[in-house]
Every structure is written in C-alpha cells, then in structure tokens.
Write a structure and sequence with these properties.
- Chains A, B: It comes from Gossypium raimondii (Peruvian cotton).
- Chains A, B: One of its GO terms (molecular function) is phosphoglycolate phosphatase activity.
- 2 copies of one chain form a homodimer.
- The first copy, chain A, has about 300 residues and is of the alpha/beta class.
- Chain A has 2 domains: about 100 residues, Rossmann fold, CATH 3.40.50.1000; about 160 residues, HAD superfamily/HAD-like (Rossmann fold, 3-Layer(aba) Sandwich), CATH 3.40.50.1000.
- Chain A contains 10 helices and 15 strands.
- Chain A starts with a strand and ends with a helix.
- At the A-B interface, helix 5, strand 11 and helix 6 of A face helix 5, strand 11 and helix 6 of B.
C-alpha cells in the first residue's frame, strides 16, 4: 500500500467496469491457430501463469515468442503484478533468457503511476513496511492530511499500520482517491503454488473504508491508451493471451481484442466450462507453445 | 486469524442474514424512555462506543447501569470485539469500576467458540502472529490439511503468512469452514479514533478465497440462543442498545428486540438520517446516560 501526497484537487474518477461476451470458447487447433495468426498484428501476453510461474519459465515460451517475432508480430506484456517497475520486469525477462524491452511491458504499477501522472499528482511516495501500529490510550495515530491518493497493490508486507494509514487517508482526507492496481484474488507468485493476490489487500481496504476502488490494471482498459500510443495497431488486430478470465480475458474483450485463454495458470478447464462462468474467450489452449506446435513451426 | 484442526466432517453452515425494518426512529424523550423502561426486562449493551471508547468509560455509564439494576433489569453485554475472552472482558469491566459477571458477557469470540463446539470441533488453535511468508522458488508453503475451520476476527497482527495459511485451508481443505466473528468495518479500539475492524481482515480473506464467511457475531442472532439459555426473558422484552446500525441495531431487529441507537460511537445523526440508510432503530439518543437524565433519576 502506498500513500501519495498531493496538493491539487482530486480528479473525477472514471468508471471502468466491463461487459462480458458469452459465446462459446473454441479449442485452439491447426485451422483456427492459422486464422488467428493471420488476423492479428500484436499479441498481448499476461506474464504470471502464461510466460512463467514464479521464477520458472513455462515450457516452449522462448521458441513461441521467437516464432511470433520472426513473423513480424508485435509482442506486448500486460501484467497485473505491481511488485516490479518496468526496468525490473525487463531484467526479469532477461534473467529468464527472454529479450524484451521495457517499453513492451505494461504493468499495473506503471498504470497506477500513469493514472497519477495524468491526474497531475507529484511523485511522492511513503514506505511503511516496517512500521507497527498499537492501540494506546490518549495516543492519536497521525496521518498526512495532504495525501490525495492511496494506491493498493499486491503487498506481502501488509500490516495493520498500513491498513490504518490507508483507511484514515481514504475516510478523512477530502477527495482522496482509492486506487487499486488490480483485484486478482490469487496468483502464481511461486512456481509450486498460488498465493493471495492484490485482490486480498484491496478487499481489506474496501472492508475498513466501505468504499470501492478505481482499478487501473486489467480488466480496466486504462492501460490500453498508453499501449496504443506506442504501437500503431488497431485493437481488433490484437490478441490478448492470459490465464485469468476476470482480468485478462475480460480486459481483451473490453478493449475489443481477440482473446486466447491458456490453462497453464489459475484457470482450469472446469472453471471455464462452469455454467456460472459468463466470460468466454474466443479460443483456449493448454499453454502458449501450443501455437507453435499447432502451426507445425 | 485462527485455524482450527478437526477430523470430523464439516457441518452444514446455516444462513444468518437479516431483514431490516424501515420505520422512522424516535428521539428518546421523557415519555418514551419511561415506556421503554416499563416494557423491557433486559437491556443488551454493545460495549465499544456505548460503554467505553478504548480504555475510557463513557460519561454517566456506571450510574445508568446501577439505576437499571436497581429497578430489577437484567443487564447483558453483547460485543463483536473478538480480541478478549469472557474472563478478560470481566476484568476490563472491573478495571473500569463496573461490576459485571463473565456470564453476562457475550462476545463474538465466545460465539465463535460456541459455533465450533456445537459443531463438534476439538479445541485446537494455531498462533502465527510472528511467522512470515516468503516467495521462494521450489519451496512449498505447507499447511495442515486437517484444519476444518478458519476463524477470522479483529487482528492487529494481520500478515501475509496468516492470509496465505487461511487461504490455503479454505480453498484446499475439503469442507473447511470460513467463520467470521463479525464484519464491523471500524471500531473505537482507542479513545481518540476509529481503527480498521474485523471487517477488514474478513474482507481480505474473502478477497483471496472468493468465498463468503459464516458470521457468528452481530447482526447474526447465533449468540441469542445462548443468551436465552441463561436469561429467562422473551426477546420482545429485551432492548438492544448499540452504536452501529448494521450490527447492533440489525441484530436487535433480527432477534425481535426493541432497539436503541446511541450516537456516542461510530454512527452520526446524519448517517442515521441518510436516505440510503434502511436500518432504523426504535429509538435513538446521544449516550446511554440520557436514559438516567430523561427519567430524572
């Protein structure tokens, strides 16, 4: 959780909810994989559960990305993970043997920074990981009354001090924004299992403030404007590839992209097929490298 | 957050949602205060914001309780605060100069214990306040697969270790119960201000598990069965006195009690009067001791 100081007045938060399409998902096969490749100029990839799990690359990813680049496709990485900057992400790709430029990376931390920038917040930041809060009589927990935005993202250092600080700013500072990088319930923060995601920290602050956040990561399409500034591709010629229905696939649908769900992350075939699921991707397959094998490349 | 081990199969969680009445609240005055006193045999008091704020007694409380006892009224204390046992609560009353027996105290921690007891859970408990979680490659975060219930209450030691432990138990242990002591968003944990309440921790676990808890504290009337076992008073001759609409007043209404809102805690007159508020107490007043002054005692 970060609190951002400002002296400007607050902007009007825009609504970013999405509408899900509900037609059936097609299993990726030789024919539709070829058609997909022909109809798309840019592939947007989620990272956790698609490119890697924790610090382990998913099988066949480097070869698949190489093949797509060799066919002139643009590659973009759109991640809700907010724990790294663009440079740190580029370094992570590098350490896994993948050559990705930082301007091909659109993370929810970047989205939050851009949201604050376009709303003219100065770049102040507080860091409270080691601070502790105690209930003491006659002792007031003081907070900075000029904090104008609280950004909540994935935070393994969540504690009661931060929760009280965020709660006071949002409840008591006039016009203070409550911004969520994303609301993913869980994610593959390590290779062997899932862990609570930013949705956990965001929900905690919703629970204490009884307010709902502005979400800047997927499924919000806020990041798309910045992506379009960089890449001269119409969204109808983009394909969003992800492992989460309620973030990746919904983001792709909200933005007007084609969508491909991979089952290498948090979503299982039974979740996809469940009658309660209304978010259906255009295509689904087990893992990214199926594109490579289906095309016989 | 506590995880409770069990080997028995899980019981069927009961639904405990309430329906709010919406008639207008009457300001307490001499006439209706007298009528209220005559029609009631037991007063049920919330504690934080009603009897005390943090460690400070609210003005006039001892004299009011003395007067009510002198008229033969039964006094019961029904609190959602889960950080203390009944004995610890009795000691807190004692330290503030109030003579209250532990069997007059019904806390949400007691409710959670009773919920587990009637559902035949053995009394095991884990304590993880000082433990830490780290995202390490090849390292599995292990959890006890026999944990059959996770109880979430107010926890100033909330951390990512506990959140991951609770999340794994609820998501992966077949039939594991998710029990919330209560969902109060904030409370007067100290005299000078409000702090995030159990609703914050409960929401965090809802956020990571995408599940809703069984709530045993107010506004659930689960505690009322135990209260009725102890006191031979019909609920229609009880008055619930509290400072929260969505817990205290709703609890009173759900149980068929009369209800009195005091404005000495988290609820303001404007919140009460707001058109969006559908929970109207029978009566409201500034503080508990108004009963005393209105009756001219």
């Amino acid at each position: 959780m970060e609190q951002v100081s400002m002296e400007a007045t607050n902007p009007n938060p825009s609504s970013m909810s999405g509408v899900a399409a509900a037609s059936a998902a097609e299993l990726l096969c030789c024919a539709n994989a070829r058609a997909l490749l022909d109809s798309v100029d840019a592939f947007l990839f989620d990272c956790d559960g698609v490119i890697w799990k924790g610090d382990k690359l998913i099988d066949g990813v480097p070869q698949t990305l190489d093949m797509l680049r060799s066919k002139g496709k643009k590659l973009v990485f759109v991640t809700n993970n907010s724990t790294k900057s663009r440079i740190q992400y580029a370094n992570k790709f590098q350490s896994l043997g993948l050559s990705v430029n930082q301007d091909e990376i659109f993370s929810s931390s970047f989205a939050a920074a851009m949201y604050l920038k376009v709303n003219q917040f100065p770049p102040h930041k507080k860091e409270d990981a080691e601070k502790r809060a105690q209930w003491k009589s006659n002792c007031l927990f003081e907070h900075d009354k000029y904090v104008g935005a609280v950004v909540v993202g994935l935070d393994p250092d969540i504690n009661y001090y931060k929760l009280q600080y965020a709660t006071l700013c949002i409840r008591e500072n006039p016009g203070c924004l409550f911004i969520a990088t994303n609301r993913d319930s869980v994610g593959h923060m390590t290779d062997l299992q899932e862990w609570p995601g930013a949705g956990c920290m965001v929900a905690a602050v919703c629970g204490s403030t009884e307010q709902e956040p502005i979400v800047v990561g997927k499924p919000s399409t806020f990041m798309m404007d910045f992506l379009l500034q960089k890449f001269n591709v119409s969204t109808s010629r983009m394909c969003m590839v992800g492992d989460r229905l309620d973030t990746d696939i919904l983001f792709g649908q909200n933005a007007g992209c084609k969508t491909l769900l991979v089952l290498s992350g948090v979503t299982t075939q039974s979740t996809l097929d469940d009658p309660s699921n209304s978010i259906k991707p255009d295509y689904y397959t087990n893992k990214v490298s199926d594109i490579l094998s289906l095309l016989g490349e």
